[in-house]
């Protein structure tokens, strides 16, 4: 989605910013009636501590015990659902390697340096 822009009369291409929250799937993934090639987790920027607490409570109610819940795949699926507005079942249905891409992106967001 980059546009050819000429800067100062030269033919230089502007620097294209890559979306660090875009997780591209190795092959298309079909959920219900739609096929997806990627998922955009940009909504992670809008997640609040209140959302994180709610997800922690959901995990506790499920009976799962994690010392560091935000490092779990379950947490990543639940927080990704909140960030994207997609149902948690979307993330739970992903193939293993794609689910781990999501988990790693969420973990990197939470623990990565700015």
What does this structure look like?
With 114 residues, the protein is an alpha+beta fold. The longest helix has 16 residues, at 96-111. It has one domain. Helix 1 (49-61) crosses helix 2. A two-stranded antiparallel ribbon has the order 1-2. It contains 4 helices and 2 strands; from the N terminus they run E-E-H-H-H-H. Strand 1 and strand 2 (34-40) form a beta hairpin. Mean pLDDT is 86; it is low at 1-9.
Task: Give the SSE map.
Blueprint: E1 22-31, E2 34-40, H1 49-61, H2 73-84, H3 88-92, H4 96-111
Antiparallel strand pairs: 1-2
Distance between the termini: 25 Å
Name the shape in a single word. globular
Radius of gyration, in Å, reads 17 Å
**Whole-number mean pLDDT:** 86
Q: Work out the helicity level.
A: 40-55%
- Find the structural class using helix and strand composition: alpha+beta
| Beta-strand content estimate | 5-15%
Q: What number of structural domains do the residues give?
A: 1
- How many helices? The count is 4
The tally of strands reads: 2
Report the major sheet.
2 strands, antiparallel
Order of helices and strands: EEHHHH
As residue ranges, the low-confidence spans are 1-9
Report strand order across the widest sheet: 1-2
Using brief descriptors, characterize the structure shown.
single chain, 114 residues, alpha+beta, two-stranded antiparallel sheet, 2 strands, disordered N terminus
